[in-house]
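Researcher: I'd like a structural prediction for the single chain below. Treat it as a standalone chain; there are no partners to consider.
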Amino acid sequence: MKLKQTKARVKAKQVGLAGGGNRPASSLEAATEGVVDCSVCRGDFDLDSEGGISGYLGILPVYFCPTCLSGITDLVNQLNDFEQ
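Model: Treating it as a single chain, here is the predicted structure.
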């Protein structure tokens, strides 16, 4: 019960993405329909037409443009020695 209350309080206090995004964190679902700011490069991109991804990194909402998503995927593959 206490964990649910803590999560609700944290969510209520969130005002933006890590690093100073200009959209409220609680609007992650609403922001998936249109132009958003990439959490890495801060470039504007349209999730519907350009691709990319939106989700949570722990409790932090994040948006990755196609270029940064590709770079992050490549980094994970390199760090874990995945064979293609």
